[in-house]
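Fold this complex.
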Amino acid sequence: MRFKAMALATVVAALAAPVQAEVKVGLITTLSGGGAGLGIDTRDGFMLAIEQAGRDDVEVIVEDDQQKPDVAVQIADKMIQSDKVDVLTGIVWSNLAMAVVPSAVGQGLFYLSTNAAPAQLAGPGCNPNYFSVSYQNDNLHEAAGAYATSAGYKTAFILAPNYPAGKDSLTGFKRFFEGDLAGEVYTQLGQTDYAAEIAQIRASGADTVFFFLPGGMGISFLKQYADSGLEIPVVGPAFSFDQGILQAIGAAALGVKNTSSWSKDIDTPANAAFVEAFSARYDRLPSIYAAQGYDTANLLLSAIDKADVNDDAAFGAALMEADFDSVRGKFSFAPNRHPIQDIYVREVVQEGDVFTNKIVGTAMTDRANEYVDQCKM
Amino acid sequence: MSRERAFNLAALALLVAVPAWAQLTGETFTITLATRAVIFALAATGLNIALGLGGLVSLGHAVFFGIGGYAMGILAFHAQSYTPLTDWPVTIPGTKLMPVIWLVAILVSALAALLIGLLALRTTGVYFIMITLAFGQMFYYFAISWPAYGGEDGMAIYVRNGFPGLNTLIPIQFYGLCLAWLLVVLWFNARLARSRFGLALNAARQAPQRVETVGLDPVRLKLVALVISGAVTGLAGALFADLNRFVSPTMFSWQLSGEIMVFVIIGGVGRLFGPVAGACLFVALEHLLGGITAYWHVWLGVLLLFIVLFGRGGLVGIFAGRGAVHD
Amino acid sequence: MSAILIAEQVLNGLQSGVMLFLMAAGLTLIFGVMGLINLAHGSLYMVGAFAAAAVAAATGSFLLALAAALAAAALAGAVVETVVIRRLYDKDHLDQVLATFALILIFSEGTRWIFGSFPLFLDIPPWLSGPVELPGGILYPAYRLALIGVGLAVALGLWLLISRTRLGVRIRAGENDREMIAALGVDISRLYTVVFALGAGLAGLAGALVGAIQSVQVGMGEPVLILAFVVIVIGGIGSIRGALVGALLVGLTDTLGGIFLPELFKLFTDPSSATTIGAALASMSIYVLMAAILVWKPTGLYGARA
Amino acid sequence: MTDPVLSVEGLCKSFGALRATDGVTLDLRPGEIHAIIGPNGAGKSTLIQQICGGLSPDAGRIRFLGADVTALPVRARARMGLARTFQISSLAMEDTVLQNALLGALGAAGRPWGFLRPALRDAGPRTLAEQALERVGLGDVAAVRTAELSHGQRRQLEVAVALTLSPRAFVMDEPMAGLGSAGSQQLTALLAELKADAPVLLVEHDMDAVFALADRISVLVYGQVVMTGTVEEVRADPRVREAYLGDAP
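Structure:
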């Protein structure tokens, strides 16, 4: 599948870019299987920005990784060896990113992450050619911990799937939660029934429940939690409250607090324009993945205007400037090339027939990440 | 059977010619694809020993593939982080040497096959299918939730492991290694099928009662077949991990077990070159159809149905006709 | 750990067990009568859940949605049986595995083609939402109690169907001797279609019932399918009674293992690694159970033949 | 009188309420053909299964070559020289006739663990297999696939496989079943020669063959041996006529 940004090269772009080398971008993301919704949003957000820019010096090649690490590696090999791309982007999942990123940046390519940003790549494994435009994986969990503390909760019951991202999430929460833990549970990855955990929560006497259960796991948990009659307030990262899956949870999610680096009601002109353009173009509301894809494309375009992609140092410096209008408002890079940004607290609300999120506060301001000092570039 | 031999020779010629052409024209990615196909062919050839000769319908061969992969991953991980595997009773360091990794992959997957076989071969038929499937899931969940080696995230190995005298980072050289292994195993497989063991195993598949009444133990024959089969598939797993420079629990997934079986069936069960033809066709389809539609699995499913329902003998059968499997 | 918590967890294990039974019963029936191993059974589970979600969205009625799930899955089963499955009865298990694996590919990607990649919404009806108080002060969701009830009712219904009706007589005859039922003048191919559709309908019903408290998405059937395999291997392939016992064993082991293993390890090591190790072992517990039962009885608890 | 090669004492086997074998006692002496006859459902197949080790009896003992083999598995009895042929041919149909015979020779040699050398190049077993095929008259079709053999030829191959085991006793389960009269005459001649190699326990429906071959006959009815005797004794016995030939006046 190939999209070529059609439209005319604008005069502005032509003036701003003294070096007009064609830039090839490889977008690897999940377009089939259970996780396809996330990848489709990433792609659509990214392509929206490219289309809006309307330039013909950027070619984007899109391929489906089927959410399988070995397929992602194979596609990356193809894009590098056969298509000769300059920049890779688009991977949703941390385990796929870990399979592709180290080897790609090792071969001198740029990788811009639209979502996954595991700790390994922020700390000792950081690289001048690797930029996370989304967040550092721990950020939203840390924000949930900070929020739970500021909301005055004293004891928390926390749960996540038993895999590395799940453990990172609980670690992130605990880093900023100052109360006590009433329970800490690792569930099976892909688990669909949470009756046992809910019973433990009921027996634990906690003030609040923090959970990180992405995708279908979160849908199942929230539906079952709502039905259990438990009134303990729940908080989680944005992944389980994404636009794509909120409709599948329905009223069970109403009122739940979640932390996010983006929300469709962030009050900036850039965000309003993005939400409107995305809704008009694709006939649905954008998700955080779409927003991050959109920002990534705009960051890339801003750097292309300033430097030659073949000049690693100059192009890296141009990216570091983050000279683009982020839909998240404030946006800059920490030294380890991960964002410094605000993390918001949102609440799930109903607008007409549609379930969506509304910002109710800011959990962390200008948060960078825990690994800056471990990164030696 | 000369037509089958002609087919085999043609397949061999392609395995040499296509990457050579790709090398000359600079189509490096075609070599990577061919390497993938050859490794899958090796894994499927392993399964074909159990399935084609022994009649063991194992839906858990990804276990061995994954074990081979993790043998590579764990050894290379310790080598690249300069930590020993264990300090007690003696210090065992990691390694980045392919021959050592291969040996470990073969031995460990053979051991796993022995243990699984001891349990699973207590049963036959449909029980055997389901038990191997369940063992696969058991390893899969273990790999996901055991934290020491990356869990669900898997492990990235930054530089491909080395082989004395070669630069394995150059695609065509690594391809050569994989092809050499495939040829060695195919040769072994051809000999095995005609050996005393092959004869007895073949009979154990067709008439287990008969084997027993001549004083042989069909279960023991099948156990040995499963061990050999698992070892070959484990070797393929180690090579696959080196191709991707990455291992993860998906190498244990039951879909992969299904796919390995698909290679064998599309190509032709019990045919020497069946798994090779099947794996090559699968990789080609994945590449070509995957480029046309994101829903290519539907068409793969339809193709598979047609082969099962109407094309007994798979690709090799279609080209070379039915005819004796052994001659 | 309080007695109430333990009682609640036992109920949870029971509930997941009876839902597994709905899946396993169809699988084991189809194997018993036709000798067919059907990997695509999980796809029929998914079909039921999607049909229920679609009908619930259109009509707002949960009961209609359940009926639709049953009907859609049974219909899909009947169609698949007529077009594909009946060509597989004479073939060996290998061909059956491959063909039904192909069906999974077609069903999964086909469903995604039709319904898109996002999970669908399906909720429990208002009249079953919320918890009820049981004797002893246990608060337990009404819907889950209803699931236990439905599962047991289906088990009873199946038993009556097989022991008391003409269809049941034919099914039993089919399990014992295929030539005999042909001699009795029963239209075998129709019997097979009916049995397959019955199994498919049960899977679809399970998909819809469980879908209401879980996520309705592509690929939801395969994890359940593998659990159902474990169930019928434990119970003995072809035995409905075995399926029931096996399903309850697996449901209870899975639920209680996940709770008690981490607690057990907390006696030996620090809480954080105890939860990790406990969870890792809990995810393997049902397979260990299966292996143990097979060492003891290679054809399962109630299995007569391999 | 010499010791029997094979003896069965008080053998019992029930399936639920059905007593398939009910206290059977019989023996097989060197150099004889001992036939077991009886109506359908008399328990002949169950008896054979127990003698060869496929089923374990509820009570009773089986002795072979002086040793108690009641608890031994099929293959252990086979290795001792108990050679069995099946009622329904049980051969590797995709393999050649020679390969099938060779399987027996390999079993007799005890070790099938050769992985690289072609089995056909093992001179010892191959000679043994070829001799056995010659003896049953299948020397010409050694290279033919077993599936292509006629029914009668498959019967002969069953015997050939048994011969490669250097048997100390044959147990034959209805070798004549499904054969035409020409076929049975040919096989009858072959069996008559075989008892020079080792005694034969013969379960057979074909009465012409039984009366032509047997030195002794045991009559099995409802799991019990009604009588054992020579051909003449059996022919003359009214109980046999009643039980077995049924409608006789």
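The mean pLDDT of chain D is 88.
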